[in-house]
Automatic annotation (TrEMBL):
Keywords, in A-Z order: Membrane, Transmembrane, Transmembrane helix
Transmembrane stretches, start-end: 222-240, 261-282, 294-311, 323-341, 347-366, 378-395
Domain of life: Archaea
Source organism of the structure: Halomicrobium zhouii
Name of this chain's protein: Uncharacterized protein
Lineage: Archaea, Methanobacteriati, Methanobacteriota, Stenosarchaea group, Halobacteria
Length: 398
């Protein structure tokens, strides 16, 4: 009977997960907002182009996202060559002065290496105007250093082509949020400064300045302007249970209840970490496979396998203990994952209530498992809360 309930719960959660993913893909309608006359455009130093110094999710100003943070005055193909062919480029942490709007860059001796590759990522746009005629410009290409399903530095490059001798770059660092099934930005300022140094350290770069053409804030610290002269050139419940049980036996935790308790805590802790590790490992082992194709089954393991596994492992654990172990294990797992991905405290705080809601739902599932006849309400509430939190993350309403 319990196995039938487990199967029914698993099917229900998978169906909810599928609906969530489909709804998230459909929830991308552009918003109505300001027009070209309502936004500030920046005059480019070469030609007659004027640039909106931001990017947007759609071809409209209302869906504005991150600010452009680097402009390179050179042939766009040469700029691409400089980025793509200088893998393992040496980046340097820079000193800054905030007393003036423009300043020169001073180099230090601390160096870090980055290996650039072609990147997968969503399409973003910027707006360019010439002689009163404007057009939306999609990214020309994008590069990253790191892993799509882990943490990475990510750049999008915009270049209008024709006789325009400039490229606009948006650079940031991000991590893959498994619950939201999308990337979360963790840093803009540091990433743009590292990229700025990469260019500043290359031959024939005549000048590097910073101009504050955008609104200053945590995700925008001005635009670096670079002038170049020329260039010649799945975890299963049984598997986790067996492994944790073996460890428990070695530690003297021989009773079935204790073994189940250790297995429950270990499972709730391990799933977020193993999903992350499996995603990064498969992405590196199968570079020809689209990252989201790798992420899809792992997402099901996370949002469906985790609650079903907790449901099964909590059957013989006392109610209060099951609740505490499921909640503490899950919170420990996602905290370790965030630390491993170098997610800042600010980003973690933004999603704290969502993660607590997930933990509460998982705890209710664990607490409502031991005596289904009397705890059906708690069990149902737990699955409903978990599903609602998963849905909120997938629809990006948190």
């Amino acid at each position: 009977m319990r196995y039938r309930r487990s199967l029914a719960v698993a099917v229900l959660v998978v169906l909810v997960t599928t609906a969530v993913v489909v709804a998230a893909e459909l929830n991308s309608d552009p918003r109505v907002g300001p027009g070209p006359d309502d936004v500030r455009l920046v005059d480019m130093e070469t030609g007659d182009d004027r640039l909106w110094p931001y990017t947007s999710r759609h071809a409209d100003f209302a869906s504005r996202t991150l600010a452009i943070n680097l402009i390179v005055y050179d042939d766009p193909e040469v700029v691409r060559y400089r980025l793509e062919r200088r893998s393992n480029a040496t980046w340097t942490e820079l000193n800054e002065s905030e007393e003036t709007a423009n300043f020169s860059v001073e180099l230090t001796e601390e160096r870090v290496g980055f290996d650039w590759h072609s990147a997968h990522g969503a399409m973003r746009y910027t707006y360019v105007e010439r002689d009163g005629r404007g057009r939306w410009l999609p990214q020309r290409y994008q590069l990253h250093a790191g892993t799509y399903l882990g943490t990475r530095s990510h750049v999008r490059v915009y270049a209008p082509g024709g006789d325009s001798e400039w490229s606009a770059i948006q650079a940031h660092s991000e991590y893959w949020d498994w619950f939201r099934m999308r990337h979360g930005v963790t840093d803009v300022w540091g990433t743009s400064r590292q990229l700025e140094e990469d260019f500043a350290d290359q031959p024939l770069v005549s000048d590097v300045e910073r101009a504050y053409a955008t609104e200053r804030g945590p995700m925008s610290e001005g635009i670096s302007v670079i002038h170049v002269a020329t260039l010649l050139l799945a975890v299963s419940v049984p598997a986790v249970r067996r492994r944790v049980t073996a460890v428990a036996d070695e530690a003297g935790l021989a009773t079935p209840t204790r073994r189940r308790s250790v297995a429950l805590f270990g499972f709730a802790l391990a799933v977020p970490l193993v999903v992350r590790g499996a995603g990064i490992g498969l992405e590196q082992a199968l570079p020809w496979l689209p990252p989201k194709l790798i992420a899809a089954p792992l997402y099901v393991v996370l949002v469906a396998g985790l609650p079903v596994g907790v449901y099964r492992l909590s059957e013989d654990v006392p109610t209060e203990r099951a609740v505490a172990l499921a909640v503490m294990g899950f919170l420990a797992g996602i905290t370790l994952d965030a630390v491993a991905m170098d997610v800042t405290a600010t980003v973690m705080a933004r999603f704290a209530w969502h993660r607590l809601a997930l933990a509460t739902g998982l705890g209710a599932i664990a607490g409502g498992t031991r005596e289904p006849g009397r705890s059906r309400t708690l069990l149902t509430a737990g699955f409903c809360l978990w599903s609602a939190a998963v849905l909120a993350a997938a629809l990006d309403v948190i």
